[in-house]
């Protein structure tokens, strides 16, 4: 439980929801037909709006139940904690909402899919691979360049579940690449504007209006607040204090 509560909030909530929903379905306590995506049930009177969320939370049965939870926790927490692209409160939540929307439009509306969990996991894996280019990753019993990991997983899905399963899962790569293009590639190399910004209300919900100190794999950062905690020298942080910060009001030389 200590390890669970120490996990980042979005990943912790996502994995817990996946565990509960999948345990209910695979344990026979509810039917998968009550939670899979179904456009007709969304458009009827008294729409079943939960079907916009539950298709992203159902794992596979048997061994896939543990495997899917493990992959989701590994790559989602790796992004939420360590990715430099999610440096502000709520950024990772905005990323998840964006890729989930693209997956819903492609895998759900376009391909008429029912379950989007594997596509969401693939989006996490693709973004994680882009952030860690040049490193090695374990795939089954071998080590491969991490940027090849999503494609190796997609090939495995093609072999095990056929072209339909691979197409559904591949929508996660499209969603994650579109996010990368709109937030990093296009603004950086084409001089365009990044339109995918975290709304202020989401930033406040995740603590942007409270002082917080976050440890990252690439350093430490202070988040907004009324005061910045004083740190002893001996480590790199994103907040620096100057020797002039404690001085009083200045006086103009030569004045009265």
From TrEMBL:
Keywords in alphabetical order: Endoplasmic reticulum, Membrane, Transmembrane, Transmembrane helix
Highest taxon of the lineage? Eukaryota
- What InterPro entries does this protein's entry cite? DER1, Rhomboid-like_sf
Task: Give the UniProt record's GO annotations in the biological process aspect.
Answer: response to stress
- UniProt biased composition (Low complexity): 224-244
Q: Where is this region: Disordered?
A: 220-256
Give the record's membrane topology.
Multi-pass membrane protein
Please note every region of biased composition (Gly residues).
245-256
Subcellular location per UniProt equals: Endoplasmic reticulum membrane
A GO CC term?
Answer: endoplasmic reticulum membrane
**What is the protein's major site of localization?**
endoplasmic reticulum
Known role: May be involved in the degradation of misfolded endoplasmic reticulum (ER) luminal proteins.
**Family the entry assigns:** Belongs to the derlin family.
Give the protein's recorded name.
Derlin
